[in-house]
Automatic annotation (TrEMBL):
Coiled-coil segments on the chain, per record: none
Domain DUF8129: 119-157
Pfam family, one: DUF8129
InterPro entries xrefs: DUF8129, LipDrop-assoc
Residue ranges of the region described as Disordered: 68-97
Name assigned to this protein: Lipid droplet-associated protein
Amino acid sequence: MKPLPLPVRLAAGLAVTALEQARKLPQQLAGLPLTVVSEAMQLSMRVQQHVTELAIKGDDVLSGLRPAEEEPEWATFDEDETPVTTTSEADADDPWEEEERAIAEVPEFLPMYDELSIAQLRARLRNLSAEQLEDLLRYEKAHEGRPEFVGMLNRRIRTVSSPNKPAQS
């Protein structure tokens, strides 16, 4: 028997292969979404790796063109910062500060000053003269030294003392 021509044999083989694949299709369809997602993720990771490799090569080339800063001016390190001392820590080192505290008394014009919140003090500042405000500022610095109180008193003193101040703000 004479063999069939090559194109006929190829067509028969192709038909059998298509039939076999068609029979496997229901099983392959169940895993198809997972396969597609997995291959997409692999492709994405390969692209990211190539981009990173190119960036590294670019960094190597560009670093030779301009020297890097030893320590950028915006960089700060813990050992560079000076420690912030609280009023109580500063007072422990300065014996004269303790004496000033003992001498300073609550101003007579505002006897409940130590119990006032910052909002309550702000409401009372409008009725005080520059001299009284300076007394309060000295008292605050000698006792609590609260930054928000000191700042508010300083601002009010500047407002009251300025030559072109608005009438009773």
